Every structure is written in structure tokens, then in C-alpha cells.
Amino acid sequence: MTAIEATLTGLRTQAPATLATAVLVRVGLADRYAVTETPLGPTFVAWNGRGVSWVGTAGDPAAFEASASAHTGRPISRADALPPPLARAISRRLSGDRRAKIALDLRGSTAFETAVWLKALEIPRGEVRPYGWIAAEIGRPKAVRAVGTALAHNPVPLVVPCHRVVRSDGTIGQYSLGGPQNKRRILAAEGLDPDGLEAEAAAGVRYIGSDTTHIVCHPTCRDAKRVTARHRIPFASLRAAVASGYRACKHCRPVSLAGAAA
Amino acid sequence: MDTDTALAARLARDLEAAFPTLVEDHQDRLFTIALRLLGDSRDAEEVAQDALVRAFRAIAGYSPDRTAALRLRPWLAAITVNLARNKRRRHDDRHPAVQLEPMLAEGFEPADESGTEPAMLAAGREANAAMTATLGQLPSAIRVAIVLRHVDGLSVAETAEALGRPEGTIKAQVARGLERLRLLLAEADSAGSPPRRGATAGSSAHTPPSNPGRAFAAAEVLS
Questions:
Q1: Which residues of A are identified as catalytic?
Q2: What is the separation of C-alpha A106 from the centre of its chain, rounded to a whole number of angstroms?
Q3: Does the distance separating the beta carbons of A27 and B56 come in below 8 Å?
Q4: Residues of A in contact with B127 (CB under 8 A)
Q5: Where are the beta strands (DSSP E) in A94-206?
Q6: Nearest residue of A to residue B135 by CA position?
């Protein structure tokens, strides 16, 4: 080998230490996470090139990393901040803009779970739906309990708003991200009154109709909220509403619920 | 079976399980190729990243047979060379007046490079700096052949495959490149400063006019 060839060989260089992780994250074989501010306080959000993959309360980083890795089977490492477009999209989504696009990496989930989570994404901010509504909407009306289980396993709470799904008896129910108090907190932050909703449900109200339009809605439907007190007719079941000449709202699409139907 | 053949077989069986090994095995050489073609370590890291991501997506779309038959070293080099050429073009569009070679000739080495070679002796580093500056003066078609053949260490056949040129062309380009490097370095040595473009016009009769920013004629790859 000539001296020139030896010098050329000497130009070999090591790649920067950041390169390998960056590649693996981009192709979805590793995750990164960073903290972001939400109505529940500081929250850890993990992502890779395919989308957001895991969300948890920002407590102990080691515990978050362990839970994320156990779920995804991938290595995870801390980043300084979310990619700015993702941070903006999450902030917009949490303030009610459903057009904010957030890619999700839901690999490892069943088709049923994915259907439940995607349906939960359709519930607007400031509204709730019962588990039975999701079951009916995804064509599995009897799978109410399985819907509850799928929501409990939501890997990306807040981003997929499982907090907007409540028990069919009208009580707020459980929440995977820090327990039921947090579910009340986030619903209150979205403009709902969880205590008032539970009190109304306890009094037997499951649907609200308007005696001017003869349309019946879920109580938190934006159309129901516009009905003035004078024209607001409560119903205990959809059957009772239909029997009184009401038709189901096309926005919130109320369905008969086991236990609520007469 | 060499390590690349074994790795291609593993990629064919389970891309996701084997891909981290591909990154581990090839990141240094792809970064080096990009750095020696572009001269900027940030651009080089971007190109090396993009090349590996592209490789992953390409293999994801290949049949297992096609993946197992990949010759990873020239294939990955080809992807990197193409992306470096595109980056160079975009860079030129944004900064038409800035040329890499004069800057290198004045000693603007990539900033973070010395840190990656801590054991290098001062004399060796000086020789590397001189070589880096001189490499930048080669016409791009010749420089890319030299970088693949002698910096990366591909065989003539692999370089030909990566660049989509006949082996005879590669041999001629590499020989011409080595000869020009020898002349330029000798000249710089005797002048005590990096050589100026044009000083070796006699030896460049067969090379395109030196507009290194734009004349980068990389290979047709990714058929």
C-alpha cells in the first residue's frame, strides 16, 4: 500500500454517538420520550417514527421507561423535548382541536382494542359517552365489558381520550392515568361538571330531549347543551324517548343501553 | 460466509431483529463516505441517517430472497452516495456562491472531527487535513471513486457496482485520482501551503472543468 493509500484509509471516522439511536427511532425500533405539560400536569410522552407510543404521568423516569419497554419491547431513551410539531399537535388536541393530526404507534394491539381507541378519538372535548356507546358504534354491542378493558389498556391516554368514556350507569368510572380523581380533573378541565353529571345520572337521567326539535341526545352532546331549561326533557331510556315521538340525535347517536333501557 | 452475507440472511428472516446490527456494522463507514463527499459533519450525519432509514424501508418492501441476495457494502454505499449528491445539489441551490474546496484548502476542517480520533498523532492529523483539502479538489466523479475504493475500502468490483460504472472506468478513475492526489500533495508540500486549483491543469485533461459544487456525477443506483 502506498503512503497516499494509507492516508486515505486514515480518513475513516466514527459516526457521531447520536446516529444509531436516531435511525432506530425513525424506523420505529426504539422510542424516545420527553415531558410535556397537560391539564394533569407534567406528563411523559414517548414516540418513534411511526407515532406516539406510550403516555404516562411524569414521575419516576426509570419507572416510566420500564413500563414503556415492557409494553413495547423496545429500548427507550430520554430526549430534551418533544419534536416541536408533535408538542404543538398535542397541545392543540388537548384544547379541543380534533383536526390536529397525531400519528399513533399502536403496534402490538388487537384489532378490537384499536377500534375502541379510534372510536374514543371521535368524542369531542367537553362531552362524554358511555362504554356501551363505543361497543355499539364499533359493531360489538354486547362487548361492553371488553370495551372497558380495552380503554384501561389505552397506551396513549390523553392523546386518545379514554377519559371521555364513562360507565353506562352515568358514574365517571376508572381511569388508567393516575386513577379516577385524574379522570374528574381532566373532564373538569375540559369544561364538564363531573359531580353534576353523576348526580343527574343518579336521578335516572340518561338522555336529554328538546321538546321543540323532538331530538334526543346524550346529556353532554353539544346539541343537548344548547337546549334551554324550559325545553329540556330528561329521559331514563331511549325507548321512552322514542315512545314520546323523539328521534335520536345524528351527532351523538344515542343507543339503547343494557341496564338503561326499560 | 462473510459477516455481510450472514447479516443479509438474518435481515431476510427478521428485518426488525437484525436491523440494529446493520446500523452498528455500517454507520461508521456510511458517515465517513458522506463526510468525505460533503465535507460537513452535520450534513454527513443527516445523509448517513437518511441512508440507513432508506435501507430499512427498502428491505421492508423486498422479498426475503431479494434481501438475502443483497451485497450490503456496495448497496449501502450507493444509497449514501446518491443522498449525498442530492444534498449537495440542494445546498448549491441555497448557497450558490459558497464552495467547499476553497474553505477546506484554507483549513476549515469539520469542527468536531478531531474529537473522534483522539489517539491520532499530530503528524497524522496534519496529513489527514492536507488529504481532506486535496480530496476536495478532485472532480467529483473521481473523488467518489477514490472515497469508495480507498477510504471505505470497497473492492474495484464493489465500487463499480455501487457507482453503476464499468470496472475498467473505476480502475482508470482511481488511478487518475491517486496520481492527481500525489501531484497535488507534493506541490502543497513544496509550496508549504495547500495547492491552488488550476496548478495541475496538465494532469486534468480528461476530467471535467472544476466546478466541484455542481459537477458531482454520482451513480445511477437503486434500480
A1: 162
A2: 12
A3: yes
A4: 7, 10
A5: 129-130, 165-166
A6: A8
Which CATH fold topology does A204-262 show?
DNA Methylphosphotriester Repair Domain (3.40.10)
pLDDT of residue A96: 86
User: Under CATH, which number does the domain A18-94 receive?
Assistant: 3.30.160
Size of interface A-B (CB pairs under 8 A): 89
**Structural domain boundaries in chain A:** 18-94, 204-262
Report, as an integer, the average pLDDT of A191-211. Answer: 94
Of the partner residues A5, A7, A11, the one whose CB lies closest to the CB of residue B32: A11
Helix ranges (DSSP H) in B39-153: 41-61, 64-68, 72-94, 100-105, 122-135, 140-146
> CB–CB of B32 and A26 under 8 A?
no
CA distances from B80 to A244, B25, B29 (A): 71, 15, 10
B45/A18 CB distance under 8 A: yes
At A13, phi and psi to the nearest 5? -135, 150
What pTM does this model have? 0.81
3-class DSSP assignment, residue B27: helix
For residue B194, what pLDDT band results from cuts at 50, 70 and 90?
Answer: low
B126 part of contact set with chain A, CB < 8 Å:
no
What DSSP designation does B203 have? Answer: G
Q: Nearest by CB to B45, which of A9, A19, A27?
A: A19
Determine the longest span between alpha carbons in chain B, in angstroms: 57
Q: Give the integer Cα–Cα distance in Å for A33 and A82.
A: 7
**Phi, psi for residue A83 in degrees, rounded to 5:** -55, 135
Chain A positions touching B113 (Cβ under 8 A) are: 13
Decide if B41 touches A, using CB distance below 8 A. Answer: yes
What domains can you pick out in chain B, each with its CATH number?
Answer: 3-203 (1.10.1740.10)
Task: Give per-residue pLDDT as tens, A154-187.
Answer: 999 999 999 999 998 889 988 988 889 999 999 9
Give the chain B residue whose CA is nearest to the CA of A30. Answer: B20
Chain A residues lying within 8 Å of B30, measured CB to CB: 15
- Distance CA(B91)–CA(B212), nearest Å, equals 12
Is A18 at the interface with chain B, CB within 8 A?
Answer: yes
CB contact (8 A) between residue A23 and residue B49: yes
C-alpha cell at A191: 369544561
What CA–CA distance (Å, rounded) separates A176 from A182?
9
Contact flag B185-A4 (C-beta cutoff 8 Å): yes
R_g over Cα of chain A: 23
- Cβ partners under 8 Å of residue B90, min gap 6: none
